[in-house]
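example protein:
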Amino acid sequence: MHKYFLKAVIALSLFLGACNQLEILEDIDKVTYGAEYAIPLINTQISIGELLEDFEENSTLFVDPDGTLRFLYKGNVISQNSDQVFAPFYETLETFSIIPLFSDNQALPLYDQSGLEIQRIDIKQGEFIYYFRNPHLEPVEVTIRLPQVSKEGEILTFTGTIPPYSGEGEEPFTTNLFSAADITDYLVSPDAAGNIQITYEAKGLESGSPLLLPSAYVSFQEVLFAYAEGFFANQLYPGGSDTIHIDFFENWTQGEVFFKEPKVNFYIENSFGIPTQALVERFEVTTVRSEVLSIRSELVDNGIDFEYPTLDEIGETKSTAFTFTKDNSNIDSLLGAGPVSLFYDVDILTSPGSETDVPGFITDSSFYKVNVEVELPLFGNARNFIARDTFAIDFSGYGEVSEAEFKLVTENNIPLAVDVQGYFQGERGVVLDSLFSEPQRVAQAAPVDTEGFVTQTTEKESFAEFSAERFKPIKGAKQLLIIASFSTTNDGDVPVRVLGNQLVDLRIGAKLKIER
C-alpha cells in the first residue's frame, strides 16, 4: 500500500504530478494577477481500492464482506504423481532386467523396500521374454509358469519344445525373444516379501524324466503399472519447495508494520488412496532486515494428516485445507516482521506409524497437489514506516517561473497519516534543496473505533513555498527524491482496517510568478 500511497502523495502535492498537469491541461482555468497565475490543478477523489488495484505484481487484492482489503500471495503448485510410488518396482525390474533361473522354482523380487507390502499390482503395459537352452541328448519339453501372475483367473504359462543337443556346436534353445509375450492387463499378487515365483518343468520326451536346464533366463521389458493395492507404511516422498515473494516492502527503509491477523493457507488435493501426512520440513520467512525466521507450530511438529479416497472411491480426489494462524503458530510475528519472502519445503509420509489395517491403493493417474497462499489483511498498525522513491522532474518547459507556492488540501477517510519530505536533486544526485524545511504531515489519519473502523473524516492543508531566491537553485533539478513516513491512527498505537471504499478528497492548486 505504501508505494502507491506514496505516488498518490506525489501527485497530490504537485511535486511531480502538478508539473505534468501543466503540460496536459489545455482547458485549465487561469486566474491572472499581474505576473502571477493561480492554477487549480486537481480536484478529485481517490479511493483506497483504486490506489491498490494494481499495487502488487505478485498478489491479488480481495475485499472481505466487511470491506477490509486483503492481499493474497500465491506460491507455485507443488505436485507429484504416482511415478514416485511405483519407482521401487521399476528400479527392481531394471536392476534384474535379465534374470537367470538357478532352479526350477525361483523367487523373483518385485520390490525390496521396508514398509511396503503389496497385495496386488495391475500391469498396464509390458512384455515377458524367456530363453532356455537344452544340453541334453534328447528333445525336451519345457513348461514355464508364473503362478502369481494371472489374467481372468488364468496364470501366465508358456510351453515349448527344444531339439536334442548333438554334442557339438551350439546347444539348441527355445525363446520368444522375437515375439515377446504381451502381459498387458495381467494381475500380479506378490507374497509378503515382495516376490513372485517362477517355475519351469523340463521333461525328456524320450525318457519321460524331469531334467534341469542350466542355461535358463527370463526378462520383463517395458513394464508399466496401472494400479497397486496394499500397505505403504512410512514411505517418505520428497514433495517439493517454493518461495513466495512478497513485494509489499519493496521501498521500505525503516519503521514497523504489523499485520494483526495474517494467515498462511495450505490447500491439498489428493487422489492417492493411502493414509498420508504432510511434513513441513522447512518454513522460513526472510525479512527486510535480512533475518531468517522459522515457524513454530504443533502442525509442523506432528505433521498434518490429509484426506484420501478409500477403496470404494478409486478415481476420486479428496481436498484438505489447513491454516497457520496466530492461534496455532507464531505466524503473526513472522509476517509482522516485514516479510519479503516465504520459503517452504513440504514432504509426504504415507501410512505413518503403520497404524492402519486397511489396505490402500494408488493408480497410474494418482496425484497430490499442494497450494500455499499468504494472506495479509490490511488490518493492523504501522509506526514510522518509511518508504522512498525517486521521480524525474523538469521545470524548463514552463517559462521563466521565478516563484511558486503549492497548496494541498486533503479530506482523508483513510486511517493512515503521511509525513513527507522531498529533495530536489541535480546531476549525479546532488541535493539542491528540500521541499519543506522539515518533514510535513500532508494527510492526517482518520480516527477509528475499537474494531479499527474509521469514525470520521479529517482535513489537512499543506503548503510548499519557493521564493525567487529559493526557486532559482532548483530550476535545474532533474529528479525529486520523496521520503514518506506512514503511521496508522494514534501514531501506530491502534490497529486499523483499510477498506476498499475509503476515500481521499484531493484539491491542489499552484500559484506561479512569471518573470516578464
